[in-house]
Amino acid sequence: MYVIAGLGNPERKYMGTRHNVGFDAIDALCNEYGIELTETKFNAAYGKGRIGTHQVILMKPLTYMNNSGEAIGPMCRFYKIDPSENLIVISDDIDQEVGNIKVRPKGSAGGHNGLKSIIAHCQTDGFKRVRVGVGHKPQGMDLAAFVLGHFSEEDRKEMKESVDNTVRAVATIIEEGTDSAMNKFNQKKVK
């Protein structure tokens, strides 16, 4: 079984912001695989289903971004999921252009507070992740204002494609492995 966690903030005012692309990807995975987030536990909304032959839990932590690990750690422990093997985290990435995604088998938080929280609560940085490019912060702009801001009309079109690629990348990680997903998706604007 896999736990697939998309990071974001739960309030309606954060919908469509750069920081909430993880929630957008979970919504897209739910639509693609007919999974509903009907359960709430561990400070998360989640649902169970299948991607291919694998059982999955899709989840949105309701703890706000910076405390995502407070939901993901207990979820993994309850379902006896080894985060180094069967946790996939989807988050925003300000180090990539809009439309790009990057699959990683593990790594540091890279300054992302949501990932820092997950590392602390899961006691490993060895979990798989899909980092979704939201563009670089303009010089002189406050980081929080940037990531909590909305996309331009043009960027929204790119993000639709990016979220679709994220869905495909998650399925590839599960069905074919992380290396295969990296080879297919760690390129600029996969078509």
Number of helices: 7
Q: Output the radius of gyration.
A: 15 Å
Which residues form runs of ≥5 with pLDDT under 50? none
- DSSP, total strands: 7
- Share in β-strands: 15-25%
User: How would you sum up the global shape?
Assistant: globular
Mean pLDDT: 94
Give the CA-CA distance, first to last residue.
Answer: 29 Å
Structural class: alpha/beta
Q: Largest sheet, if any?
A: 7 strands, mixed
Total domain count: 1
Strand numbers in spatial order across the main sheet = 2-3-4-1-5-7-6
CATH architecture: 3-Layer(aba) Sandwich
CATH level-4 homologous superfamily: Peptidyl-tRNA hydrolase
Give a structural overview:
The protein has a single domain (2-129, 137-145, 153-185), classed as Rossmann fold, CATH 3.40.50. Helices cover 39% and strands 21% of the residues. The protein has helices at 21-33, 69-78, 83-86, 113-122, 143-147, 153-176, 178-185, and strands at 2-6, 39-41, 44-51, 54-61, 87-93, 101-104, 128-133. The protein has a 7-stranded mixed β-sheet, sandwiched between helices. The two termini are 29 Å apart.
Task: Describe, in short, the structure shown.
The chain is of the alpha/beta class. 39% of the residues lie in helices and 21% in strands.
List the helices and strands and how they pair.
Blueprint: E1 2-6, H1 21-33, E2 39-41, E3 44-51, E4 54-61, H2 69-78, H3 83-86, E5 87-93, E6 101-104, H4 113-122, E7 128-133, H5 143-147, H6 153-176, H7 178-185
Parallel strand pairs: 1-4, 1-5, 5-7
Antiparallel strand pairs: 2-3, 3-4, 6-7
Helix pairs in contact: 1-6, 2-4, 6-7
